[in-house]
Amino acid sequence: MGKKPATERRDDVKAGIGNDPAFAYSALPGVADEMVDNAGAVRPVWQNLLAALSRMPEGELSERFARADRYLRDAGVFYRAYGATGMSERSWPISHIPVLIDEREWQVLSAGLRQRADLLEQIIADIYGDNRLVESGLLPPALVGANPEFLRPLAGVKPAKGHYLHFLAFEIGRGPDGNWWVLADRAQAPSGAGFALETRVATTRAFSDIYAETNVHRLASFFGAFRDALQGMKRSGDGRIAVLTPGPANETYYEHAYIARYLGFMLLEGEDLAVVNDQVMVRTVAGLKPISVLWRRLDASYADPLELNQHSHIGTPGMVQALRAQAVTIVNALGSGILETRALLAFMPTISRHFLGEELQLPSIATWWCGQKAEREHVAANIGKMVIGPAYSGMPFFDDNGQSVLGSTLLTTKRKSISDWLSTDGHKLVGQEVVTLSTTPAWVDGKLLPRPMSLRVFAARTANGWQIMPGGFARIGSGDDVAAIAMQAGGSAADVWIVSDKPVERHTLLPAEETFTRNMPGSLPSRAADNLFWLGRYIERAEGALRILRAWHGRYAEAADPNQPLLADVSAYLAAIDIDTEEAVPESLLRNIDSAVYSASNIRDRFSPDGWLALNDLAKTARRFKQTITSGDDASHAMTILLRKLAGFAGLVHENMYRFTGWRFLSLGRYIERGLHMTRLLGRMSGPDAPDGALDMLLEIGDSVMTHRRRYNVNTARLTVTDLLALDPLNPRSILFQMNEIHREVEQLPNAFVNGQMSPFYREAMRLHSGLAVMTPETMDGDVYRRLERELERLSDLLAQTYLG
Amino acid sequence: MLYDLSLHMGYIYDVPASGAHHVIRVLPLSIGNRQRLIAGSLTVSPQPDEQSNYVDFFRHPTTSIFVRNAHERLDIRMQARVQVENQAIGADFSPLLARLPEEISTDWSVEPDSPHHFLATSPRLPETPQIAEYARQWAGGGLTVMQIAQSVCARIHHDFTYDTEATTVDTTPRESFELKRGVCQDFVHVMIVALRSLGIPAGYVSGFLRTIPPPGKERLEGADAMHAWVRIWCGQTAGWIELDPTNNIAAGTDHIVVAYGRDYSDVAPVIGVLKSYGSQKAVQAVDVIPLKQS
To answer: Which of B50, B52, B107, B108 to mutate to test the interface with A (most CBs of A within 10 A)?
Structure first.
């Protein structure tokens, strides 16, 4: 495609709009619009984009949009929707035209949001502290006492680092007078920041040239600052930071994984955690490790089945106790959800004057809590201009699954009962002024049309106070109606560009800046690479375990004595990798295969249906065997069947998968795991003190019995086995073979060379390869294998750091 | 009245349990002039690996324990000596029902005893239209809050059959209401939902009941296990009163308070989370022995 710089077209903005009917955009009467002002003129920040759009040849725009869609599809960006027919995965609905906002306006908005964040912190500290607001009559006690989000076990619990709130989101909208209003505060576990990032990446896929020439504030530094802030909250060097997710069934699970990977934090679920002597620990294969900061994405009431929701299956017993002991920081503090209470909006102005001695810089949507007589009467008298909704709901009125109703519709249906309803159920209701939100252009059926929008903006507490993400995402309605903004009602999301007059600072946390702008086919999202890499490792790990178990059970069938030295030795080896030979089909083997299925389920679009079915067949068969198979011959035979099924899956992948970056990550996972497997085995079983029969068993596990017989013409000896399984470059199971292949694949990865120099990862792969290539069988002893094992593991970490972070 | 109390709660596991967390609320409270805990002790077997004590939101001293290793049974034993004073409900200073919302709204507090905690739904007690319909008969008319509470208490006692087989600890108020059967917990939950539907703050009281009745009186239901009754907020002047719908009496010197809460979930004597694959059996034994007549 021809790539003329977009700026060449800057001169004829008006003409572009005027000439092409698709761009004959006009705002709705009486409604503010983001792109055009009241006089119908295009606002300065939009002119470049609009000019570029209007000059694109027919078809180009749809090509560009397709690039954005493809990115989202490839990245697997989805959210889950809950409907009458159950849960379904929906791709992230993008509205391709970004919303552009002038940096100067954004600064004013940001100042207002920072003030609001500070106020919310003071309110939450009071609600879970001294309750002065209630005592001094500024906050009705019912809004605390009757509030399902008031978590009594947290009352009086002070956060370890002094602050309750660290990450907030605000739903804001612009009214007809051009001013911004806060529609809802999100403090429980605000979602969307990761979606904002992905929306940005997708949008820049469509408009890379325009984006490059527009001074758009980058999002990365915001995340960098928040990551640093979280790191600053660690208690000691040892304490880990993790993202706590409710799990894959959650509607925004995709984002939890994305954020964790993007920031380099662990992604954990409640059951990964344990509270030991008041300290939150994560369970790892190396034992329990302390956690000092949890960025939670699950609702607080589920966090601890002992003291909060007793029916929670996704919590960690003792979490509240750990908080009481100030041994962990949870972002945001458990209980923060109370700040989302819709009725609270009615009391923010007075509370602001009380706490801050100033007015709210950014007003909330006008709200009246009907638990008070005067307010109730006001709502009843002005019902035609109101939306009536649940007082304790945390969602904005247009996004609460129809719980809110327009007063005007009540007028026609049940006018008489309104004041009765308000007085009996008043404490459960709020009235909110009906707002007309501003519109922004959306591309609908081949032309730009004004659509209502609200913005979701994010705030993070950093060492320098609250920082507002310069951007976020806009929620765009599918029709004229404000209610159509909800995604469940067909709404979509658009990128938000904060545009400066001057060049902006660039900063990225992604491994390569060009992933934002390069349109190379197949540039692989980190998320998919990560899953492929791990799929490779899990598959290979399962194969390794199956081979050892088959050999073990074969010998056990003959010896019938698990204490026979070789069997006992191998059992001890397997125990160290969590496999118990007392189980014929060990549970951890099943978990391993399940992990492979899970990794694959995240990247299903990369497999033929055949491959997916083959993998599931393997998992199902293994589960069935678990119930029926007994140790010895039976198990040995079962392992053979499972190995065959596994080979079937591997073969389908091998035959069908496109040989590009994704393939390399899958392969690297397999090579590294296979190299590790053989290194550990040789280190354990080829030493001078290995039990009788160990060398023959090694050859069997390494599928090299025949080759050994042909090549060496002698009985198995330490040196010949070492030669064949460690150093033979032609044996596809030898360690050196894996090193060769790793070297070859790494060379082909993006950014193997940076500015003509080898990347640290590439250098390490090469060093490992050549270090092993010059070894002789005599020099391969236990120390060498141990070192090699460490180096391979480091290589895996380095790969993750370089490509999967 | 002076009582010696003993409680044994035993859990027997089919398959040994491990990694067991329990939160325990079984010691009687000290409450002003009403009740005084003179001595009390709690022992757990096997010896917990971790134990901590804290005071919960409703001011109950709570014990949290953790038993790490596999165990086939867990035994919680409590012994206490408690002095209970007579709590005769005096003259009715409660307002008419119509006046109650205003009295509630003058209470600018969210302290544990504030009525605001006891008016809305709570974890175990969602809005239940069938029970609200049942309670509607008291909505109109010129009755005081206390009269309504006593009338609801009597009515439930009359309409419901005490039946230890009909329900479980997880039975919802709607289910027991439809059965018109259950134990103290069911009577109490239904009564709380009924009162809240009328706008009357009501809460759950867990405690003990004197085991052997005074000479010439009948043995009360619910004396062989921990008991439950209802507390009702009757306005600023009358404050809280306690009624026992299982026995249709006011809580008096036979009732020993352990904990206050919004419903059973706030006061459950033992809440446990543990790793175990089999089923479990629970046993409970209570002795409430009066030491002397007062």
So the answer is: B108
- Which residues are registered as beta bridge partners of B84? B35
Query: With an 8 Å Cβ cutoff, are A310 and B123 in contact?
Result: yes
Question: Amino acid identity of A631?
Answer: S
For chain B, positions 96-155, list CB contacts with chain A under 8 A: 105, 107-111, 114-121, 123
pLDDT of residue A78: 66
Chain A touched by B169 (CB under 8 Å): no
CB-based contact (8 Å) between B265 and chain A? yes
Q: What is the DSSP letter of B12?
A: E
Range in A445-449, B56-60, B172-176 with the lowest mean pLDDT: A445-449
Q: Tell me which chain B residues have a C-beta less than 8 angstroms from the C-beta of A425.
A: none
Q: How many CA atoms lie within 13 A of A649 on its CB side?
A: 25
Asked whether the beta carbons of B200 and B97 are under 8 A apart, the reply is yes
Helix (H) or strand (E) holding A735: helix A735-748
- Asked if residue A434 lies in contact with residue A387, where contact means CB atoms within 8 angstroms, the answer is yes
Contact criterion met (CB < 8 Å) for B52 and A306: no
- Cβ neighbors of B223 (< 8 A, separation 6 or more) are B209, B210, B211, B286, B288
pLDDT of residue A483: 58
Both tokens of residue A166?
């660290």
Shortest CA gap B153–chain A (Å)? 24
Q: Which helix (H) or strand (E) holds A20?
A: none
DSSP B152-186: HHHHHHHH-EE-TTT--TT--HHHHHHHTEE-HHH
B20-42 b/e with 16+ CB inside 10 Å = b? bbbbbbbbbbbeeebbbbeebeb
In chain A, which residues have their Cβ closer than 8 Å to the Cβ of B119?
Answer: 142, 145-146
Of A50-54, A410-414, A636-640, B198-202, the least confident: A410-414
Q: Do the Cβ atoms of B109 and A324 come within 8 Å?
A: no
pLDDT greater than 50 at residue A548: yes
- Pick from A135, A276, A318: which is nearest to B108 by CB? A135
pLDDT at B187 over 90: yes
pLDDT at A609: 60
Please report residues of A whose CB lies closer than 8 A to that of B120. Answer: 142, 145-148
With cut-offs at 50, 70 and 90, classify the pLDDT of residue B11: very high
Confidence band, pLDDT 50/70/90 cuts, at residue A522: very low
The minimal CB distance from B110 to the residues A134, A136, A274 is found for: A134
Q: Does the distance separating the beta carbons of B57 and A153 come in below 8 Å? A: yes
Give which of A460, A376, A455 is closest to A418, Cα–Cα.
A376
**ipTM confidence:** 0.94
CA quadruple A76, A81, A82, A88: dihedral sign: negative
Shortest CA gap A140–chain B (Å):
7
Ranges assigned E (strand) in B25-104 = 35-45, 50-55, 61-67, 71-84
Name the pLDDT band for A606 (thresholds 50, 70, 90). low
Instruction: Spell out which residues of chain A touch residue B110, defining contact as CB-CB under 8 Å.
Output: 131, 134, 141, 144-145
Chain A residues lying within 8 Å of B105, measured CB to CB = 140
Banded pLDDT at A424 (limits 50, 70, 90): confident
Mean pLDDT of A609-636: 88
With a cut of 50, say whether residue A292 has pLDDT above it.
Answer: yes
Containing A244, the helix (H) or strand (E) segment is strand A240-245
**8 Å CB contact between A249 and A301:** no
Quote the minimal CA–CA distance from B122 to chain A in Å.
8
Residue A661 vs residues A518, A529, A536, B9: alpha-carbon distances, Å = 15, 8, 14, 61
Shortest distance between the Cα of B292 and any Cα of chain A, in A, equals: 39
